[in-house]
Amino acid sequence: LLPGCELTASTKCYTFQVDEDDDSDHILALSVVCLTDGAKDECNVVEVIGRNHKNQEISVPVANLKLSCQPLLSLNNFKLQPPVTFRLAAGSGPVHLAGWHQILHRDDASFEEDDNDMSEEEIAPIVPAKKERRKQ
C-alpha cells in the first residue's frame, strides 16, 4: 500500500495480500483516505473487507467522503491483518488510500529482546512542583 492505491469507478477494489508461505507477521495500517482531483460532490463510501477472529469474511465501512463537507479522513494508522480488500462501495471516486506495511519476522530474537527492555524500564514518579511563597 506504499505509497498508496486509488479506487475509482473503473477500479473499485484493491486487495493487499502476502505470500501464504511467508513465515512473518504482517501489519497493514491505513493512515489517510481522501478524495483526489476529478472527484464529484457525491458520497464516496470506502469499505474494508477482511476476516474476523473466527475466519469469517466481514465488511466494514471506514470512510464516507464528500467533496463539499469531508474530502479527507485521517484513520490514525488503523491496523489490519492481510489479506484485506479495500472497496469503493458507493460513489465514483477517485479516492486515494495511504498507509504503511510492517513485516515482523518471527525468528528475529532482537525483536523479542527489544520488547523486554521496554517493559523493564523504570519510570520516575511525577512529583508536584514546589510552590513559591511570596512575602507580603
From TrEMBL:
A GO cellular component annotation in the UniProt record: cytoplasm
Protein name: NPM3 protein
GO MF annotation: an example: histone binding
PANTHER family for this protein: NUCLEOPLASMIN, NUCLEOPLASMIN-3
Pfam families documented for this protein: Nucleoplasmin (PF03066)
Domain of life, source organism: Eukaryota
GO biological process: chromatin remodeling
Location (main, coarse): nucleus
Location of this chain's protein in the cell: Nucleus
Acidic residues bias spans: 110-123
Keywords assigned by UniProt, alphabetized: Nucleus
Region listing for Disordered, in residue ranges: 110-136
Domain (Nucleoplasmin core): residue spans on this chain: 4-102
Taxon lineage: Eukaryota, Metazoa, Chordata, Craniata, Vertebrata
Family: Belongs to the nucleoplasmin family.
